[in-house]
Design a protein that fits this description.
single chain; mainly alpha; rod-shaped
């Protein structure tokens, strides 16, 4: 009887461990996806600012394109302080 209960407990615990490992894997994938998309947005903003500069557009357009990457960094730094 005790052996059957122990086997049942081990089965449940091993299932729980695999669920925890799956959760960690999904969180890591989501984190990587977020970093890649954030880098894409930041690079797009910088490329837009450079394009506006090279097109001799008003400086406000370059500043507008740069504001998004700057705010992304500012928000991340503020988040890390708390």
């Amino acid at each position: 009887m005790a052996d059957a209960e122990q086997k049942h407990r081990h089965t449940i615990e091993s299932g729980q461990m695999s669920l925890n490992q799956e959760g960690v894997r999904l969180a890591a994938r989501d984190s990587l996806t977020g970093m890649l998309l954030g880098a894409l947005v930041a690079l797009s903003g910088m490329a837009g600012a450079a394009w506006m500069y090279l097109a001799h557009a008003p400086w406000l357009l370059s500043a507008a394109f740069l504001s998004l990457p700057i705010m992304i960094v500012a928000v991340e730094l503020a988040r890390r302080k708390h």
